[in-house]
Amino acid sequence: MRIERANGTRRAARAVFAVLRPGGRFAAIVAGDMKRTTYNTIALDLLARHGGKPDWDDKPGSIRSLVNPTKLEVLFRKAGFTDIAVSSLATVQRMASAATVVSMIRDGHAFYKSLIADLPADRQDAAWAELTVVLKRFEGPDGITGPGEINLVVERKPAP
Fold first, then answer.
1. Could you give the CA distance from residue 37 to residue 44 in angstroms, rounded to a whole number?
2. In order along the chain (160 residues), what is the average pLDDT of each group of 10 residues?
3. How far is CA 21 from CA 24, 25, 27, 80, 159, in A?
4. Region of 52 on the Ramachandran plot (φ > 0 left; ψ -120 to 50 alpha; else beta)
5. 158 three-class SS
6. Contact 147/78 with Cβ under 8 angstroms?
7. What pLDDT shows up at residue 1?
8. What is the DSSP letter of 58?
9. What is the pLDDT at residue 71?
């Protein structure tokens, strides 16, 4: 799975390069350091604990390898881009509730789900339930607000 994700990211960068006109610029927003995004860190650590994978962030091909600014630059350079700039930017995450955060993660984040995929369904449900309880402590009258980080990547396809 990790190799497929890395290969898919490489293929995507090459596909963008192929369709971009010479001299054209491309920008992408990519997740930043998971440890600087409160709810990501809590979710990843909790799910990893349930799944018996506490070293999730140290493995090659983990989600963190795709958000590292240096690795992003290398990825786009290997695809053929030049004038690559990666900027890490602080953000504020706002969600309606803990349940919304858990639903978003559960429905759309394959790496998170992979941490507990080997568990029986009842233990997976228990992990999601615990995550909801843990995140509820961050709820306020306007939902959940917390710090985050994104990487802005801007590059150019060289002119002939």
1. 11
2. 52 91 92 80 90 69 68 90 94 91 88 90 97 93 89 92
3. 5, 8, 14, 13, 8
4. left
5. coil
6. no
7. 32
8. G
9. 85
Q: Is the pTM of this model over 0.85?
A: no
**157 neighbors 22 (Cβ within 8 angstroms):** yes
Distance (Å, whole) CA 33 – CA 44: 12
Nearest CA to 116 among 52, 38, 45, 55?
52
Number of domains composing the chain: 1
Q: pLDDT value at position 34?
A: 75
Domain range for 74: 2-156
Cβ neighbours around 131 below 10 Å, total: 22
**Predicted local confidence at residue 80, as pLDDT:** 95
DSSP letters, 61-115, are TSGGGGT-HHHHHHHHHHTT-EEEEEEEEEEEEEES-HHHHHHHHHHH-HHHHHT
Number of residues that make up the chain: 160
> What's the Rg (C-alpha) of the chain?
18
Which strand (E) or helix (H) includes residue 28?
A: strand 25-31
Task: Assign residue 59 the CATH number of its domain.
Answer: 3.40.50.150
